[in-house]
Design goal:
two-stranded antiparallel ribbon, alpha+beta, 252 residues, six-stranded antiparallel beta sheet, single chain
């Protein structure tokens, strides 16, 4: 609950900055300073209205935006609570292994291999890998964790004839790109990624320990060699409540 520093804070009604935004920034400041900790329950909308002398729509807009941005989460029938901070990924800027990225964030990575098998490539996979129709491919299906919490469900497809020996690899401990380099002398030169927001289906929700219909960041990747040979096509579902991605842009 809000305690320290709350009495001293007053909304400024003489500024053009909207009251809901002032309240939102104050609450975010409480979270960032540690005065509001992960799992703490916030006061009710009515209590915040009473404390700051604002309307319920003002409080509701501030809290709704904080929920949408991942600072808070609502538990039906119980209240609104401080969320765990989202993991910020920079994999739209740098090709880096999941384990290395999590370790750099001070988290313990882990991978569970759900499937490693040969399947018939569908049209989507054939187009992205440049394969003829009815080609065989390898499907590597993984669930990846950070500090024991599931973060991403990942399906990876690779041409079977080229990479069939990968079926013998233990990908719960070994890195795919490293295996490509050591076994086949193939180095990934670039990757094309597309991000969109989707609602988790029942299977994805169960694996990621979220509710069906909750948002996931759906990311497709095609990885290429320096000669523009497509060697990997993947589909990843990142938990929307635990991940965010940043991109740096520069003027020419």
């Amino acid at each position: 609950m809000l305690e320290n520093g709350m009495e001293e804070f007053k909304l400024d009604r003489n500024t053009p900055v909207p009251l809901y935004y002032q309240l939102k920034q104050y609450l975010i400041g409480q979270i960032r300073s540690g005065k509001l900790k992960v799992g703490d329950m916030l006061p009710t909308e009515f209590e915040l209205c009473e404390k700051f002398g604002v309307s319920r729509p003002t409080v509701r807009q501030a809290m709704s935006e904080m929920v949408a941005e991942g600072y808070l989460y609502r538990h039906k029938g119980k209240g609104t609570f401080v969320s765990k901070p989202k993991l910020e990924g920079r994999f739209f800027q740098k090709l880096q292994s999941y384990n290395v990225e999590m370790t750099q964030k001070g988290l313990e990575p882990a991978t569970e291999v759900l499937n490693l098998k040969t399947v018939m490539a569908n049209d989507e996979v054939c187009v992205n890998l440049g394969l003829p129709e009815d080609s065989l491919c390898i499907l590597l299906e993984r669930l990846r964790f950070a500090d024991g919490e599931p973060m991403v469900y990942l399906e990876t497809f690779m041409p079977y004839e080229r990479f069939k020996s990968l079926l013998q690899v233990d990908f719960s401990t070994l890195n795919l790109y490293q295996e490509l380099e050591e076994r086949f002398h193939i180095k990934i030169y670039r990757a094309h990624r597309v991000l969109e927001a989707l609602a988790a289906n029942e299977m994805e929700a169960k694996l990621l320990q979220i509710q069906p219909g909750e948002p996931v960041c759906f990311v497709t990747t095609v990885a290429y060699t320096k000669t523009e040979e497509a060697v990997e096509y993947s589909r990843a579902r990142y938990r929307g409540d635990r991940n965010k991605f940043s991109i740096d842009l520069y003027t020419e």
